[in-house]
Amino acid sequence: MTNSSFYPVGTMGQPWGAIELGQWRSRQSRSRRYDVDVVPRIDALADRYEKITYGALDYAGERYPLLALRDRYFDPALPIALLTGGVHGYETSGVLGTLEFLEKNAADYTGKINLLAVPCVSPWAYERINRWNYDAVDPNRNFRADGPAREATALIELVRSVQGPFLVHIDLHETTDSDESEFGPARASRDGKIFEAGAIPDGFYLVDDTQNPQPQFQQSIIAAVEKVTHIAPPDEKGEIIGSTVVAHGVIEYPLKELGLCPSITGARYTTTTEAYPDSPRTTPDDCVRAQVAAVRAALDFALAHS
């Protein structure tokens, strides 16, 4: 018995094997190009920043360089900030927001903080507009040194190569309608479970760290983003995507326990942004601007309270 009423790959109650993984891969088509959309913008910034190839992916003969940009001079007297986008390749404003910040705003922080930026952590998924990598693995549940996602382990290796402690890590994400229409059913099918539908929050929100909450930091970001786009309200249970709202537009996750990207630096200040590009009350461009506003607010607060 297939579970085609929810997802057209797999058999109800049975986790995927190699056959199902192959079927899933056959459904993934390249819809845009990392080497056209992202790499040229990184290259154009290489006159201002040091371009680093910190790894590579090779999926069925398709090779993707993993690229970062960092300040050419890392001042050991200054704190360090990490900015990541595209951990989930389909979350477009995270990629574009990182690039736009670098192009238009990052110069404002020269001499104040050492910046390391990774615009697109998952380029194969960026091209397929997908959450997972080629192996149907979610990098953002596998940020550990021995994890199965090369996208995650390569980033961990890059972070470990940096001398000095990190002060702040801003990880740019989106929550989209496809989380319910595609990726929730796909995950349930992959894991041999029954899909349980949820609700997509209408608006921008943040994820703080349960083990290291920084409420004032998060609220400073929300206040800045609220000037650009609306903030997601809690549902009737006082939750956003199943987690209790602890402050206006903020929920908490145990970052390290869940293997999430902002856990890898040990930074005092971490946040995961979640823009909502499918809302009738906003636009994709608004989401990019909201991501940039979030980055600026996060850096400003961290520097003021370092």
Explain this structure.
With 306 residues, the protein is α/β, with parallel strands linked by helices. The protein has one domain (18-304): Aminopeptidase, CATH 3.40.630.10. 33% of the residues lie in helices and 20% in strands. The chain has helices at 18-26, 34-37, 39-44, 92-104, 123-128, 150-161, 178-191, 215-225, 255-258, 284-304, and strands spanning 49-59, 62-71, 80-85, 114-118, 166-174, 205-209, 239-240, 243-244, 250-253, 269-275. The strands form two sheets. It has an eight-stranded mixed sheet with strand order 1-2-4-3-5-10-6-9, sandwiched between helices. Strands 7-8 form a two-stranded antiparallel sheet.
Name some characteristics of this structure.
306 residues, alpha/beta, Aminopeptidase, two-stranded antiparallel ribbon, 10 helices, 10 strands
Quick structural summary:
This protein is α/β, with parallel strands linked by helices. 33% of the residues lie in helices and 20% in strands.
Provide mean pLDDT, rounded. Answer: 96
Question: What is the CATH top level name?
Answer: Alpha Beta
For the termini, the CA-CA separation is 57 Å
The strand order across the widest sheet is 1-2-4-3-5-10-6-9
Strand content: 15-25%
Q: How many helical elements?
A: 10
Q: Determine Rg (CA atoms, Å).
A: 19 Å
Helix content: 25-40%
Report the CATH architecture: 3-Layer(aba) Sandwich
Query: What is the strand tally?
Result: 10
- Helix/strand/pairing category: alpha/beta
Taken in chain order, the helices and strands follow as: HHHEEEHEHHEHEHEEEHEH
